[in-house]
Amino acid sequence: MSRSGYTLPVFACAAAVAALHWLRHHQPLTVVLVDLIAPAQLAEISIEQVAGLSEKMALAITRSDPGDNLDLTRNTPIWAMVEWREGEGETVIIQGGEGIGKQLNGEGEAAIYAYAHKLLLENLRRLLAPGEKITVTIILPKGRSLAVRTSNAAFGVVEGLSLLGTTGISQPLSTPDQLTAFRAELQDKASRFETLVFCIGENGLDLARKLGINGEQLVKTANWLGPMLVEADLLGVKEILLFGYHGKLMKLAGGIFHTHHHLADGRREILAAHCALVGLNSPDIQAIFDSPTAEAALKYLRSLDASTGSDWVNQVYSAIAAAIDSRSQEYIQSHSERGTAATVCGSVLFDRDRQIIIKSKTGWMLTGKLC
Q: Which residues form a coiled coil (predicted)?
């Protein structure tokens, strides 16, 4: 059985707690208990180093341990600097230092998302006396170099890593054991809802919640979309909304139902083919085919629309969304003992700025019911 670990926000929180403890007691902690909130349990996190920088400031260091997950942040140091603060304002101010990414669509705000904020606030506030205020700065010394090897830039996060997640537990997403865990979650939710939303990763889960979709109807699939679709059909799920980043989800339009890039890509071929089908000119199709990323191809289509008054983004992505729906139905049907697909599939694709690009016809219908 694979070993689970903890997400980056948990280690950042542990370091902040250790630094605050030093400020109050001038003693280093070697272990910190963090209330994970989600799930409702305590995590014991080792503290590597603690140092006082002044009477009003301290620094503590932990190291990431994501368990058996294939995670490039394994063993990376996470620093938290905590400083006493005077005056008005919030009890706890959280900011990103070196190695924490910046959000391009958020005026350069630190990429510290909802769960990380909540985790830090709830664990730190309970340690403060009335009237006390602190500023917490999270630093990832290797964040900038590690970010180059992630897809963060595709989601508008630059110059570092994001503190993203909806839970404190880091599961090994790329292992068969994780598929078993995903199926168990699906079985539970299928017993309670006829309509579910499949999200490949944390960005989809986060955006779906912000749009008002009930979190209990969200199911994380990672790259296991094929097996999860078949399982949902077997469990009697009536409707599935496929909600994802266009660079991932468009693979389904090409019949690729395990979306990890090591297994298959095909995005530029899928995009170019659909551009040709809707009548885009050959030089533009070639430009799409030569685009280094799906995001770059989308940007090219948008620039065409802006300069010529055309509607290529809508035409191309409507075709892709329709293909995702039909290929998903076909995939379920081909794996069904009944020879038919009882589950209806719709799709919603968003871009790196987490803006919706397109909803398929069924996607419109399902979002109307879910939001």
A: none
